[in-house]
Write a structure and sequence with these properties.
The complex is a heterodimer. By secondary structure, chain A is mainly α. Chain A has three helices and no strands. Chain A has one domain. Chain A has helices at about 1-30, 35-60, 70-94. In chain A, helix 2 (about 35-60) packs antiparallel against helix 3. The longest helix of chain A is centred in the first third of the chain and has 29 residues, at about 1-30. The relative contact order of chain A is 0.17. Chain B is built from five helices and no strands. The relative contact order of chain B is 0.15. Chain B has one domain. The termini of chain B are far apart. The chains are: A mainly alpha, B mainly alpha.
């Protein structure tokens, strides 16, 4: 039960990241795409992909009778992807 | 502040977290992980809100639109940093068998969100939209 809830929490979080990434693409296309904004948009997509891979990696590790605890490095990577997405968003907005 | 720096070091050093105290029941660790993910989702929602202000309030004056969007994005960054900091602190407290750390952050965040919401309503209603 507990690993399953944690797995779904990772999925939900990835989904929230997907919404943010889609909004980033929308912001790029509606603002009249320039070379700079396209690069930032590509970075956003890569960050989303990175987060997806992190979630996938963690979900595989959860699939055990007594799953190991989340490692600080994985948590830090997830947070860095989120914070970097916010920085890209700021670059697109301004 | 020194505590915060020590915690930042722990984000990247799983061995050090594992050396302290005893490994708690895995269900507690998973519950802590889910709380961390819930905060991360809150951060992502704030970032999405920043994008939304920029894209769905196009008639707002530029400085208001960008100001509100940047406020939401900054809140998102703070929220994500707080997510991992609180996760590390809870993990250590559980290993040492101490009480879980208390935090002012949820109250602070709700005040910030409330202020941003009120400002948004005021800005939209008072015709600065033009």
């Amino acid at each position: 039960m507990q690993p399953e809830r944690t797995r779904l929490a990772w999925r939900r979080t990835t989904l929230s990241g997907t919404v943010a990434a889609v909004l980033a693409v929308r912001a790029t296309l509606h603002g009249g795409a320039t070379a700079g904004s396209l690069v930032v948009c590509a970075v956003c997509c890569l960050l989303w992909l990175g987060f997806l891979l992190l979630a996938q990696f963690r979900i595989r590790r959860l699939d055990q009778p007594t799953p190991p605890a989340l490692t600080p490095r994985l948590a830090a990577a997830a947070v860095l992807a989120t914070a970097a997405l916010a920085v890209c968003a700021a670059a697109l907005v301004v | 502040m020194i505590d915060f720096v020590r915690n930042v070091r722990l984000w990247f050093a799983p061995e050090e977290v594992r050396e302290e105290g005893r490994t708690p029941d895995y269900r507690f660790s998973l519950a802590n992980e889910r709380t961390f993910l819930a905060w991360l989702r809150t951060a992502l929602a704030l970032i999405g809100g920043g994008f939304a202000v920029d894209q769905f309030l196009p008639h707002l004056r530029w400085e208001w639109r960008v100001g509100l969007a940047l406020a939401l994005l900054a809140a998102g960054v703070l929220c994500s940093l707080r997510a991992i900091n609180h996760w590390v602190r809870c993990e250590r407290a559980m290993r040492r068998g101490e009480d879980l750390p208390a935090s002012r952050f949820p109250a602070l965040l709700s005040v910030v969100v409330a202020v941003v919401a009120v400002v948004m309503v005021a800005v939209v209603l008072t015709g600065r939209a033009g």
